[in-house]
Amino acid sequence: MKLDDIRREYTKDGLSREKLDDNPIVQFEHWLQQAVDANLSDPTAMVVATVDEQGQPSQRIVLLKQVDDNGFVFFTNTGSRKAQELKGNNKISLHFPWHNLERQVIVYGEAEPLPTAAVAKYFLSRPKESQLAAWASAQSRPISSRQALMQTFNSMKSKFAKGDIPLPDFWGGYCVKPHQIEFWQGGEHRLHDRFMYRKDVSGQWQVERLNP
Description:
Residues 171-212 form the Pyridoxine 5'-phosphate oxidase dimerisation C-terminal domain. The chain is an alpha+beta fold.
């Protein structure tokens, strides 16, 4: 297999300034709805990038759970690698790779912890098995085997067999407050359309086209 021979043209659509909403959140919601309507697998999946104390970036895929003018919301174990890295450096990047639509959205911003009430509301809305999995997993930490994980899961299942499952004290969420959002649409001959929204000092969004 020759990797340098793997290529294709991007011909699905083009993107102009006239097609873009002045508000990038409105534009994002429009594209997200189109991704949902196109029956893409996991349209809310996003790559979350954080940086540790040594400047080493790390990435993982997380599901977007809410978006509005306040920002982009996701939830996680607060003992996880991403949560620990955000403690030291709350700068974050989100990447939505909608390959089948030949589109990408990249968000640059800062992650702010959500209040406990918001975290509890989401946690209690999850399927019971997902709630149990949150209790069972010491996310990002070593474990001896899959069997050990399942033993802990079954133990939690027995422990919380009756009544509601409480919110773990190690479960939290973040709202990513964006200051830059890029919209990318694939184009022929690698002449892609890229537009960057930047928030100015007055809090208004400015838009400019970028070279591909």
